[in-house]
Every structure is written in C-alpha cells, then in structure tokens.
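Try this one yourself first.
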C-alpha cells in the first residue's frame, strides 16, 4: 500500500457532499439535459440575431422640388426641431430631388422607443414645411428577417404581372406557416386622371378645381349612430372610390337642370402606376421580387419548407409563360451552420472518447465526454433568459466553445484517475482529485470568460451582432465548470473498476506510453533545462520570427474577412436626369457581360439566374450563383472576371462590384466624411480627395459623393402679370398642376396603395 492509499481524505464540504450523493448529481445532470432540450425547443430560431438598430428615420416627400429646396424647406427645419432632444448621437441628412431623408442615431444607453416618441412629437410640431410637402413619415428602423426571396417573371405587362404577384402573395399567406410576405422593387399603383386643356377651357374648369372636387367627394365620413327599437343603426357617408371606372363616374359639374358632367366625360381616367422609372427583370423578362420573412417563433427552416409547400400548389395556377423562381433561401446557410455544429460536436465526442479510452480508461472517457452535451444543453436552459436566440452567430459561439469546454473535465478526470492508480478508493480519489484541481480549473474558466467578456462592450451595430458570442461562450463555460467539479466526480466515485481483455490491453498500452515519456521525452526536457540559455535563445528567436512576420507586411490585416456570398452584385449610378434609354443601355451592357462571364465560368453550373433592377438613375444587377460545392468558380473570382468584362462605361458616375454583399466585411473598405457650410467648397474638396486617392494602385471604384443635378428652368413673374392680379403662388400651382400633377386622394385598396393623380 503506497502513501496515497494510506492518505486520509477529508470528506466534508460541498464538493465531497455532492461526490457522495449521486442522486443530487444525477438530478443536476438531468435538469441540464432535459431542461436544455426544452430550452432549445422554446428558443427562437433565426438566421441572424434579433436586435433593434437604434435608428430613427424621418422621410418627407416634396414632389417636384429640387435638392436645394428640399434642404432649405425640410431638412434644416427637421434638424433644428430635434437639435435639443437628449439621447441623439448623430444626425445624417440627405436632400434628394423630391424627398428628404434624415437618419438619427440614438445613444445605446437611452430607451430607443422613448427617444423615437420625442422625435416624432417635435417633427409633428413643425409648421414651416412647404405647402406641397407630404406628411412626414417617422419610423424606428426595423430589420426585416427575410428568409426566402422569390421572383415572379414572364413576358407580360406590368399591371398583369403585379396582379399575378399579388395572387402569389395571397397564396403564400394562406399557408399557416407563413405570416409576412412583401413585394419589393415595385411601383405604387395610381389612378391617373388626364384632362386636355381644350376641355378645361370649354367648361371653364381648372386642374386645381377638379382636384378639389375629387378630394371633397371621394371620402368616407362616420355620422355616428341612432338608436331604434330594432337596435342601433350606424350612420355613414360612403363615397369611397378605388378603381378608375368608379372615378370616371364622379360628377364634376351638377347643374340644377340637365345632365351632370362626369369626370369620364372630360378626362381620360385609367389605372396605372407611379410615374417613376422603376422596374426589374429576371433572365431578361419583367419580374417582381417577393420576400418571405419570419416573425415571432417561426424558424428559418419552417418558413422555407412552408414556402416550398405553398409553391407546389401555386405554380400550376400560373398562366403559361409565367414562372416563379426561388433565388435566395437563407435557411440553407442556417442548415449548413447547424450541420457543422452537430458534426463538430459528434467529432469532439468521438475524439475525446477514443483518446481517453486509449490512454486512461473507457468509463472515465464516457463520463468526461458526457460533459459536452451537459454543458451545451445546460447553457440552452439559461440562454433564453438573456434573450439569446439560436442563430448563425450563437451557433458559431457554440463551435468556439466546443474546443474548450471539455478541457476542465479532462483535467479533473485525469487527476482522479491518477489517485486511483495510486491505490485510493473510488470515492476518496474522486473527492481529492476534484478538490486539487477545483481552484486552478475555476481560474482557468474565469480567464476564458475574461477573454470573451470585452465583446459585450463593443458599441454600435457590430456590438449587437457579436454580443451574442460572449453570452453563449461564458454560459457554456460556467455550466462546464459545474459539471467538472460536481457532477463528474460523483459519477466516477460510484463507477466500478474496469475489467476484461480490453482493459488489460489498454493498461499495457498506457504503461508503454508512460515508459516512452520517461525514457525519451523526459531526457530531452532535462537537457533543455540543463542548457537553459540555449533553450531561452531559441524561444526568443522563434518569438521574434512570429512577431516580425505580420509586422513585415507579409501577413495581411482586415477588420472582417470578406465572406464569399452566393451572389455577385453590381451597383451603377448614372447622373441625375439621365434618360430611360441611357439607363437601359448601361443595364443591358452589365447584363450582357454577366451572361458572358457565366458562360465562360461554367454556364448553368455557375449561375441560376440574373436579376436586374432600375430605380431612376440607379442600376442593380445581381447574378445568383449555385451553391459553393457546385459552382466551378468562386464568387470573388467570378466578380473579378465580371469587372474585366464590363470595363469602363462612359457616362456612369459610380459603379461597384461586390462578391460579399450583405456580410460584415462588405461595402467600401475606406470611407471619408467631409463637412462644410459651403456646398461648392465641399464639392471641390471631395473631388480633390477622390483624385488623390486614385493615384494609389490598390484603390478602385472611388465615389466622390456628389452628383450633378438635373437642369432647371426658373420662373419669375413680370410686372404685367402682377398688374393682372396674378401671384407667384398662382403661377407656381398652375405649372405644378400642368407638369407634375395633383394628388387629391390616397386610398388603401386591399393589399395595395392606390393614389389618384
């Protein structure tokens, strides 16, 4: 009997009590396992973590106004109104033709909803907006959790395609697993009323008068209710009109005697769309994009499956020539990350089980390996309390923890095994072995927690994304520590000694390995200690080599690596006022280059389709690629080839190619923000900076941030006009009515918004 076996072990204290009472240890283990399963089932499943952006957007439409008018009349008024509100970090305003946009960043320490309410109150109090400006739209920016993107495309007119897209949306919403479906890249529906000048003169009418007539008569007004013996009856004036034929029947002139003059008698009334250049194509055919998003407890995989199920029912109902293509399914990425986590967990269990079985004991290996599911499921029991969801980032955090979580259990189990080898009883070896390493293992876990905890304090948008990682990792570490100190010793203390041929073979292998260490490895270590200065010099030399490698510039540095996407995207911008023909020429050239690149890199094996959209002077062309294991050429290489095929396009102000659209590493690598009171000075400075940056060989796709505005005719009244009693307002409104039009009403028709112009 050796000294260790004769050593008296103190069996008092919480660690010893838990080791002696297997019932308590098993209850704790099953709480982690079963509770973790229920916790996982109740966790929200999503592609990316859910969070608020802490941004308030104020947008005001001012149709027909120049950017200068928008700035002076709207932007400056909004900025002055909100300047005294506490909790605002930064205000970024943009004045475009016909619309003002003000993006307000809220301090993270403030209640975003409370600051939003204060901003809305101040904006609603503004009374100096131009008379033709529309009602301000104040919104707390929300991030839609899109899962599946569909494209309805075919050779048909815009109205028919829009109606078919509405049918597809209605069909998707009929599936109980789908709640939110949105149409994107579409124009708002409008009812156009066009009155020839000759008709106006013939009946003595004006456009403003007709608009006022429509506004006054196309209404719904509640008149309250009256009580009768048979019950309460509601009173209501219902003159709502939703479609062109209903507006055409509206009386414009109603004489005391004679036939009323209807709107359709003097005007052309038709259903149409907003008068802007906004349209899209997919594989060369007109298209409308449909986005299916998840809300609440819905899962990405569930949304994807429900969408596919609904499409099987919807596709046969589509007319000939109309197709529905799934161009993006983010649940695929979610499933890949989920499979990677499961694969790594299984591989980790197998490696730990096999290696510990070979070098120590198979029962010890089993209980140590069980620490992985206990730690992970135990963490899922607590993570919902912290608002953590099961998403791409949290799964990444689990993968990080997987390589560390079992270390403390291995340390505790190996120390317990060492005492058993020295002749101690199972119980005493478990108590003493766990007690010896309790403090160092605890500090090891605290060190790991301290390494990840700073991610909790990363500010801004990135902090909201990466803040999930320390919550997951630290929770897993704490549960793992509890398992290694309290649960593992109890199981090892009451396990029986291993016997049999396999155990005998394992012991021989273990002893042989120990002899190798004593005879081979130990002498090398002794020599290193004996020649300690030489060993230290070699260590310092290696350290200098490691440090000098990145300092020399041979190892690149980037804040976030560019993650390869399943699509390659080009965004081009033409000068304001460019004709539709000019925009289409640029779009067609980019699309033709995309087709050429696709054919050169694998054809159908490389791409599933090309989507192109036009919004005024902005062009977006997106090539959807096949999955990474299928496409012959990576996204980055495909994008580089596409850039070469496109070349330089005359007349394009900016053009950007992206192989990583949507990820943290996407977007411009370098952004400079200049500010000055004088716009001309600011323009000169930005152009000078852009020219200077162009001298660097690695810099491309430079945008100086300025666009040349449209040409403008300015009107001023002559003295003759003033003598006739005309004012600037009279002339301005007549010009506006003749060229821009008037908007007398706005109605919501079913799921669409209809405006009368």
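Now uncover the answer:
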């Amino acid at each position: 009997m050796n000294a260790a076996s004769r050593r008296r072990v103190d069996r008092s204290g919480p660690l010893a009590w838990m080791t002696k009472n297997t019932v308590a240890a098993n209850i704790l283990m099953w709480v982690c396992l079963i509770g973790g399963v229920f916790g996982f089932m109740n966790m929200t499943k999503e592609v990316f973590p859910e969070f608020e952006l802490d941004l308030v957007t104020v947008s005001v439409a001012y149709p027909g106004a120049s950017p200068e008018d928008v700035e002076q009349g709207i932007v400056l008024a909004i900025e002055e109104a909100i300047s005294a509100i506490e909790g605002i970090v930064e205000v970024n305003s943009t004045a475009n033709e016909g619309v003002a946009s003000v993006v307000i960043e809220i301090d993270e320490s403030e209640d975003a909803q409370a600051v939003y309410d204060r901003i809305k109150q101040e904006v609603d109090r503004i009374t100096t907006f131009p008379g033709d400006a529309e009602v301000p739209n104040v919104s707390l920016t929300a991030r839609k959790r899109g899962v599946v993107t569909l494209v309805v495309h075919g050779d048909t007119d815009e109205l028919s395609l829009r109606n078919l897209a509405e049918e597809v949306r209605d069909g998707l919403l009929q599936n109980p697993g789908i709640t939110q479906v949105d149409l994107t890249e579409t124009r708002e529906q409008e009812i156009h009323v066009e009155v020839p000048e000759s008709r106006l003169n013939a009946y003595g009418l004006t456009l403003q008068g007709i608009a006022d007539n429509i506004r006054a008569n196309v209404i719904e007004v509640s008149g309250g209710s009256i009580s009768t013996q048979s019950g309460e009856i509601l009173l209501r004036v219902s003159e709502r009109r939703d479609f062109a034929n209903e507006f055409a029947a509206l009386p414009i002139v109603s004489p005391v005697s004679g036939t009323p003059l209807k709107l359709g008698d003097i005007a052309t009334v038709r259903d149409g769309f907003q008068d802007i250049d906004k349209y899209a194509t997919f594989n060369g055919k007109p298209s409308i994009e449909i986005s299916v998003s998840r809300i609440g407890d819905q899962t990405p995989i569930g949304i994807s499956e429900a969408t596919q199920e609904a499409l099987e029912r919807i596709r046969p109902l589509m007319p000939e020539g109309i197709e529905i293509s799934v161009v993006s399914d983010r649940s695929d990425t979610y499933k890949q990350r989920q499979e990677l986590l499961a694969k790594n967990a299984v591989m980790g269990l197998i490696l730990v089980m096999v290696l510990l079985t070979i070098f120590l004991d198979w029962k010890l290996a089993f209980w140590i390996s069980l620490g992985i599911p206990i730690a992970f499921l135990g963490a899922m029991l607590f993570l919902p309390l912290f608002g953590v969801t099961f998403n791409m980032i949290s799964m990444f955090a689990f993968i990080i923890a997987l390589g560390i979580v079992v270390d403390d259990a291995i340390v505790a189990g190996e120390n317990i095994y060492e005492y058993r080898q020295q002749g101690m009883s199972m119980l005493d070896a478990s108590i003493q072995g766990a007690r010896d390493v309790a403090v160092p293992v605890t500090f090891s876990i605290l060190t790991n927690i301290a390494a990840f905890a700073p991610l909790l304090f990363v500010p801004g948008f990135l902090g909201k994304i990466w803040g999930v990682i320390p919550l997951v990792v630290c929770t897993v570490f704490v549960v793992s520590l509890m398992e290694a100190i309290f649960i593992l010793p109890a199981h090892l203390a009451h396990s029986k000694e291993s016997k049999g041929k396999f155990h005998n073979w394992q012991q021989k292998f273990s002893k042989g390995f120990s002899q190798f260490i004593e005879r081979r490895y130990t002498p090398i270590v002794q020599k290193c200690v004996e020649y300690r200065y030489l060993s230290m010099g070699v260590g310092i030399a290696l350290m200098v080599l490691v440090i000098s490698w990145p300092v020399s510039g041979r190892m690149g540095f980037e804040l976030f690596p560019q993650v390869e996407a399943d699509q390659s995207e080009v965004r081009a911008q033409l000068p304001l006022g460019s004709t539709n023909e000019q925009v289409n020429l640029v779009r067609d050239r980019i699309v033709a280059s995309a087709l050429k690149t696709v054919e050169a890199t694998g054809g159908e094996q490389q791409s599933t389709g090309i989507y192109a959209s036009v919004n005024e002077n902005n062009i977006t062309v997106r090539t959807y690629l096949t999955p990474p294991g299928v496409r012959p050429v990576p996204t980055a290489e495909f994008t580089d080839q596409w850039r070469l095929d496109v070349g330089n396009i005359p007349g394009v102000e900016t053009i950007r190619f992206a192989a990583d659209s949507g990820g943290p590493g996407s977007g411009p690598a370098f952004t400079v923000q200049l500010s000055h009171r004088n716009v001309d000075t600011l323009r000169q400075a930005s152009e000078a900076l852009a020219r200077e940056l162009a001298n660097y060989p690695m810099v491309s796709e430079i945008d100086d941030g300025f666009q040349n505005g449209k040409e403008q005719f300015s009107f001023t009244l002559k003295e003759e006009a003033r003598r006739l009693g005309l004012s600037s307002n009279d002339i301005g409104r007549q010009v506006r009515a003749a060229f821009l039009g008037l908007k007398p009403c706005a109605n919501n028709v079913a799921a669409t918004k209809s405006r009368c112009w």
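Discussion: The longest strand covers residues 88-96. The mean pLDDT is 81.
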